[in-house]
Write a structure and sequence with these properties.
This protein has helices at residues 37-43, 86-98, 103-119, 138-149, 165-185, 204-213, 228-238, 242-248, 266-274, 283-288, 296-301, 317-332, 341-355, 389-396, 423-441; strands at residues 2-10, 18-27, 30-36, 48-51, 56-59, 61-66, 122-129, 152-157, 190-192, 194-198, 220-224, 257-260, 278-281, 306-308, 373-376, 402-407, 410-414, 417-418. The chain is of the alpha/beta class and 443 residues long. The protein folds into 2 domains: 2-59 and 369-418, Urease, subunit C, domain 1; 61-355, Metal-dependent hydrolases (TIM Barrel, Alpha-Beta Barrel), CATH 3.20.20.140. Strands 1, 2, 3, 4, 5, 15, 16, 17 and 18 form a 9-stranded mixed sheet that branches. Strands 10-11-12-13-14 form a 5-stranded parallel sheet. A 4-stranded parallel sheet has the order 6-7-8-9, with helices on both faces. The longest helix has 21 residues, at 165-185. It is globular, with a radius of gyration of 21 Å. The model has no long low-confidence stretch (mean pLDDT 97).
């Protein structure tokens, strides 16, 4: 048992959303108690204290769409790579990387990504993996790294026909094995989904195969309408729009996560709402890949559970919050857009997405909830309270404001020092492995 306290505390608990100087008592992976710091200290006088030193204490952040396999792309220059559009980006960069990733490079990609997650206060991730060079056991390589790091994780492998039917089947089976493994853990830390790339790289036969091998407790994690080509291909080859194709193939539903959803119309949004399908918006990736801006504000307005992710572009969810806030204001030419919608996505909808897969209450500092807690070193220069704390996060913090990260009651970072690994030693291995990957790509 320990106390994390002595700071302004955002609880996300409607009954007591704010403590000017608060504390949380943590025991056996859960929040045992919360309250005023001095009162908590008197109530638990002999309990170890982790001192927030006047910073801001709040629930850990959730990333609803990650790509661990992209970790070694930073700084990579591929010979002849000069993309003219999104398909060129996929083929020239991302599919090129995943066709060269070894199991060890997958594991090291996970290690470095999870280090960044912890340093940015992210305690839960939904990862979408691809490594067509070595598929079998790739999710278990990520799981090994995640166990060591102590991060809550929902993993899947990206099924695709782009490298042939045999590899598509191997990917389906990797998902099936991992989902069954995750269901057997019953530890509130591991979950699995049936991952799929996008409609234009998936035949009906492969989608049916994925459905046949997917345990009923899991859903699909699929890229939807990320690029205009995905929509055009679906209309040309199947005579329907993307979300209708997914509905006809029994892909949609309350356990399914549809990433991006840029090129969806009103009727498709209504279908996502009707089927209770989850959506995740990835603002920086969409902008960086020149894919366009999705109708995310409309989706939130319709009551679709629309969360926020990074697509591997960053591991800083506060950065994604900032970018989503200005993207939709700019796109809609409406200064009022995104003020309420984006924090709802990050602090409420991401929690609902996670709770559909992890059988433990998340996203609040409240008795009985999972002890996923972070501290930032932010010191406000203007009044801060429950009503304006999101604005303080938006304009005053970033991921690297985080000084402490706790997940499932385990301290993963204290005073910006990782507790689960020697960071310098690990990153030296990652750099060496990344160099080998780059050489194999450019041979």
């Amino acid at each position: 048992m320990f106390i994390l306290g002595n700071g302004r505390m955002i609880t996300r608990d409607p009954e007591h959303p704010w403590y000017e100087n608060g504390a949380a008592v943590i025991e056996d992976g859960q929040i045992l108690d919360t309250g005023d710091f001095d009162e908590i200290r008197q109530k638990y006088p002999d309990t170890e204290l982790i001192d927030a030193r006047g910073g801001v204490i709040m629930p850990g952040l959730i990333n609803a769409h990650e790509h661990i396999y992209s970790a070694m792309a930073r700084g990579l220059s591929v010979k002849g790579y000069n993309p003219k559009g999104f398909l060129d980006i996929l083929e020239g960069m991302w599919w090129n990387i995943d066709r060269h990733l070894t199991l060890e490079q997958t594991r090291l990609s996970a290690v470095t990504t999870l280090i960044d997650c912890v340093k940015n206060g992210v305690t839960t991730i939904f990862d979408h993996h691809a490594s067509f060079f070595e598929i079998k056991d790739s999710l278990f390589a990520i799981e090994e790294a995640a166990k060591e790091a102590g991060i809550r994780r929902c993993l899947c492998y990206e099924v695709s026909d782009r490298d042939g039917a045999d590899k598509a089947r191997e990917a389906v089976l990797e998902n099936e094995r991992f989902i069954k493994y995750a269901l057997a853990q019953k530890d509130h830390m591991t979950a699995g989904m049936m991952g799929m790339h996008a409609s234009f790289t998936l035949s009906d036969e492969t989608m049916y195969l994925a459905g046949e091998h997917k345990p009923s407790q899991a859903g699909f994690h699929i890229h939807v309408a990320e690029g205009a080509y995905d929509l055009a291909h679906c209309q040309e080859h199947y005579g329907k729009r993307l979300v209708h194709r997914l509905k006809d193939l029994d892909i949609l539903g309350e356990k399914t996560l549809a990433a991006h959803c840029i090129y969806v119309d009103e009727e498709e949004m209504d279908l996502l709402k009707e089927t209770n399908t989850m959506v995740v918006h990835n603002p920086e990736s969409n902008m960086g890949n020149a894919c366009g801006c999705p109708p995310t504000m409309k989706m939130v307005e319709k009551g679709i559970v629309c969360g926020l992710g990074t697509d591997g572009y960053t591991h800083d969810m506060i950065e994604s919050y900032k970018v989503a806030n200005i993207l939709h204001k700019h796109h809609l030419q409406d200064p009022n857009a995104a003020w309420s919608e984006v924090p709802k996505m990050l602090f409420e909808n991401n929690v609902e997405i996670a709770e559909r897969y992890f059988s433990v209450p998340l996203g609040a500092l409240k008795k009985g909830y999972a002890a996923d807690v972070i501290v930032t070193d932010y010191l406000p220069v203007t009044p801060m309270n429950a009503e304006n704390c999101n604005s303080h996060i938006l304009f005053g913090m970033n991921g690297r404001s985080v000084t402490h990260t706790v997940c499932n009651g385990k301290v993963l970072m204290k005073d910006r020092q990782l507790t689960f690994c020697d960071e310098a030693e690990v990153l030296a291995k990652v750099r060496e492995s990344a160099g080998a990957l780059w050489r194999s790509i450019n041979e």
